[in-house]
Design goal:
five-stranded parallel beta sheet; alpha/beta; 2 domains
Length: 377
Amino acid sequence: MKRYITNQVRQDLQKKMVFLTGPRQVGKTTLSKQLLSEYAGGQYLNYDAATHRAVIVEQSWRQSAPLLVFDEVHKMPNWKAWLKGVFDGRAQGQLILITGSARMETLRQAGESLAGRFFRLRLHPLSLREWCDTHQVEPQLALSHLLERGGFPEPALVDTDSEAQRWRIDYFSSLVREDVLEFSRLKEVNAMRVFAEMLRSRVGLPLSIASLARDLHLSPVTLNKYLDILEALFIVFVIRPWHRNIARATMQAPKVYFYDTGLVIGDEGLKFENLVACHLLKQVQWQQDTMGSATNLHYIRTKDNAEVNFCLSEGTVLTHLVECKLSDVKPHRALVRFAQEYTSVDAIQLVRECKAEADIGRIRIRDAATWLKALKI
């Protein structure tokens, strides 16, 4: 299966190192090995594998390898300085791809050690476009399948729902049990697991950290740290309310969504909202990574609780309003209100079961499957 990001990785490798990050089992290794097949003599090395780790530490890989793929190398002490030396001392024309299943936030504060030496790209779960293109199915069928299975390749591709569910149970428990130890202490794993389980039934709701902290008998500071870890491991992502003043937006209640829609506990409406959130985030981060765009994903809400599920911004300018509905084609009241207030925005109501698309005033009623499939991801 060719992923939406493959050509961009191929192009960027000709210019700099590429850092490819994303959730565990989202397809980074598969993509890397597909690229390696194009470079005879290329080499894949995973820091988590003992035999590979020795080769990495001793730098005893084939010096003539046209492409080197280093997986999870950010777990190595002083990995940035090490990687700088590898990149600067590599053979002429040698390409380097770095992959990892945890967000490498330290790259943003990497100083000058890696400055100007890498491109960052983030790989997301499968989208409607990818599923339709690969399997030659209609968008509605793709939407139904991804709502049921989620967008991670393995559960999406297995034969039965029970196989997908077995994968999901193991995936979620192993992430919390094993990967959390990279960021936290062993005794915190159980509390982290309970917190993550609680979030599964709070998708799409403004998250009260103070209230959850009381329920778990933890401090809000600790719970915010746990949320940061779950984000860093690509288990959840957080969107904040839109506000021209970034500081004020940061202080307000966030919403949490899961990269794996299959982990959401709730009705079809919540799963549909989560799936739309995944697609919008994927589109936003694709624009950030490949075009340097200042676009961002938020939600919008007033003090009197008028709310629209999602909005997109470009810098300090609001560009899109997106509301999700299962079957209601009547324009959402808050969507109408905000569309009147922000006259330059594109106001869209995505309907899961849309019998007929329509433009009603400034509101565009659109079939969700068709609209999502049209995204460039």
